[in-house]
Design brief:
About 25% of the residues lie in helices and about 30% in strands. The protein is an alpha+beta fold and about 80 residues long. The protein has one domain. Strand 2 and strand 3 form a beta hairpin.
Length: about 80
């Protein structure tokens, strides 16, 4: 399962050498299809400082979202 995560204006995280903020989408991949477990992982990684999660969106949806995220997609190991 793929999970894309978005962030608000004041949500900023540094994970390793990656800066996560309002200008990027984060991609998390899971070997299960449990959305509740995936959201738990989002809270583990980002606390309550993220906006929306999109589970297994169609390619067209990701392309639409990318208009608003100039830094593109950052994949994190889940």
């Amino acid at each position: 399962m793929k999970c894309y995560v978005t962030f608000g204006q004041v949500h900023r995280h540094e994970i390793g050498d990656k800066i996560i903020d309002r200008n990027c989408l984060v991609l998390l991949r899971f070997d299960h299809n449990d959305q509740n477990k995936a959201r738990e992982k989002c809270f583990e990684l980002f606390g309550d400082k993220f906006c929306f999660t999109y589970f297994d969106p169609k390619r067209e949806k990701v392309e639409q979202l990318l208009r608003y995220f100039p830094r593109g997609v950052i994949e994190l190991c889940s």
